[in-house]
Amino acid sequence: MKHNYVSVGKILNFHGIKGDAKVGFSKNQQDFLASLDYVLIKKDNEYTRFNIENIRFHKNFAIIKFESINSIDELLEYKGAFLYVEENTIREALEEDEFLIDELVSMEVYDADGKKQGFVVGVSNNGANDLLSVKTNSKKIVLVPFVKAIVTDVSIKDRKIVINNIEGLLE
Q1: Can you tell me the distance from the alpha carbon of 2 to that of 169, in angstroms, rounded to the nearest whole number?
Q2: What does the alpha-carbon distance between residue 30 and residue 62 come to, in Å, rounded to a whole number?
Q3: What is the pTM of this model?
Q4: Residue 94 gets which letter from DSSP?
Q5: Cα–Cα distance between 62 and 100 in angstroms, integer?
Q6: Strand partners, 56
Q7: Cα distances (angstroms) measured from residue 36 to each of 22, 27, 59
Q8: CA–CA separation, 58 vs 55, rounded Å?
Q9: Listing from the earlier edge strand, what are the strands of the sheet with 116-125?
């Protein structure tokens, strides 16, 4: 069975002399990270399991002590590496109506009348909201705020998003 892996952080550097990892992660993922027993580190296209001995948060970073890493040298070979979990681990942690924001990329965008308006080419965040970059039928890229008033329905299964095409939004 093929596993899909989703990145949950990146080893930025060591922290202290015992080989703790300073890890960058998405700001709303703190509780999820804290719930993990292990992560997979990808190196040379191999995923290796690392058990988490403890994790604490400092400023905007996670400081993670891995069971098998006890020195700076042992950690340094993983500097810059991404931490992954199996996709279904994340699925279990998501609420029913939550999904991974990356999943929206390449979804088709329809208006309330069921007319195809374009498709999502990217997702960004302006600090307040996630923004969908939508390539419209006229090949323009338009930013659509990912808020309930505008994005009325997301179907992961059908790979489609329905938006309330308010005047001027997709021109």
Answers
A1: 40
A2: 8
A3: 0.57
A4: S
A5: 20
A6: 63
A7: 16, 16, 20
A8: 10
A9: 141-145, 130-136, 116-125, 108-111, 160-163, 151-155
CA–CA distance, 85 with 106 (Å, rounded to integer):
23
Q: 64: which strand partners?
A: 21, 55
**Where does residue 27 rank: exposed (0-12), middle (13-18), buried (19+ CB within 10 A)?**
exposed
Residue 146 three-state SS: coil
Helix (H) or strand (E) holding 154: strand 151-155
| DSSP-derived 3-state class of residue 64 | strand
Amino acid at 151: V
Please tell me what DSSP assigns to residue 165: -
pLDDT per residue of the chain (171 residues) written in tens, 0 to 9: 456 888 888 999 999 999 999 999 876 778 888 889 999 998 888 889 999 999 999 888 999 999 999 999 999 999 999 898 887 777 676 665 566 667 788 899 999 999 999 999 988 777 677 888 999 999 999 988 888 888 898 887 888 999 998 777 876
Backbone angles phi, psi at 107, to 5 degrees: -70, 150
DSSP readout, 100-111?
A: -GGGGTT-EEEE
**Alpha-carbon distance 3 to 88, whole Å?**
9
Three-point CA angle 77, 81, 85, nearest 5° = 125
